[in-house]
């Protein structure tokens, strides 16, 4: 799989919370958790399950840093 996003991280799905149309997918990347909201259809068509190894890709026009 090739993506244009440069910020890609390998992780493991730790939790999937399904709603009426959207699902919240939590991915553990090192010591961090990344939460993604995707359609339930995408979860089903990709066959995403807890424990799966996945790639998290972040593409944003702004990345903020605070101190």
Automatic annotation (TrEMBL):
Alphabetized UniProt keyword annotations: Molybdenum
Pfam families assigned to the protein according to its UniProt record, in alphabetical order: TOBE
Domain of life per record: Bacteria
Name the record gives this protein: Molybdenum-pterin-binding protein
Domain named Mop: residues: 2-67
Any one GO biological process: molybdate ion transport
Keyword Mitochondrion: no
């Amino acid at each position: 799989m090739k993506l244009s996003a440069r910020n890609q991280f390998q992780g493991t799905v730790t939790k999937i919370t399904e709603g009426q149309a959207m699902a919240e997918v939590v991915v553990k990347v090192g010591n961090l958790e990344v939460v993604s909201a995707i359609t339930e259809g995408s979860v089903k068509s990709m066959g995403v399950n807890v424990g799966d190894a996945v790639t998290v890709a972040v593409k944003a026009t702004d990345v903020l840093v605070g101190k």
